[in-house]
Predict the 3D structure of the following.
Amino acid sequence: MKKSALFIVLILIVITTTAYAGFFEDIFKIVGGGTQNDELDDSTIASGLKEALSIGTENAVKNVSQVDGYFGNEAIKILIPEKVRLVTDVLSTFGYKKQVDDFVLSMNRAAEKAAPEALSIFVDAIKEMTFEDASNILKGGDTAATDFFKDKTQGKIFDAFSPIIAASMDEVGVMRSYNKMMDTYEILPFAQTVVKGESVDIEHYVTTKAVDGLFYVVGQEEKKIRTDPAARITELLKTVFGK
């Protein structure tokens, strides 16, 4: 090929490549998921997840610790333990439904009184979250952060929650209500032929239900932040969860 012809070909290649540079760049973005500048760094991801959990747990604790926070929420309301449900059914049939209702209310009041103490435990746990944890959680489901948080801290929270629940139960008279209810059942005619009352660790039961309910509400708060732009009340949340 003559030198002049070769020169013209090279010029055409340069022009063509330049003209389509933007097109190829767009294709690479689509295939590769964006440029590196579009990716969030570990520090931003971790900060966003921690902020989401901080806001979520604070809202959750605030919601459940108010009057009727547990009792008025059908999703987390603490109901009669299964082992004594037949007993309470008999009591209600014999005209002692108020005693049963008082017992249910007292369990939920105990949980509501204990709930504020959980916030500091949540805060400490959030501080321990690593960059890797945060990155994995961001890619997870609607309650990935709550599930991770629950897996890592549930036992610790239960242990710290238990004495608070016990004190709250004593304050609101859970065991007084329970014992009164069971004593009434014992003197009912033919009651023992229907079902014999079983022993239940009420403190353990209420603590378990209180912790489970709290995590449930935290999960609901996380879902809001992930799925509802209006719930992303800070610029950091908008940046991280907007991605």
Observations:
- The chain has a mean pLDDT of 78.
- Residues 1-39 form one domain.
- The chain has two domains: 1-39, 40-242.
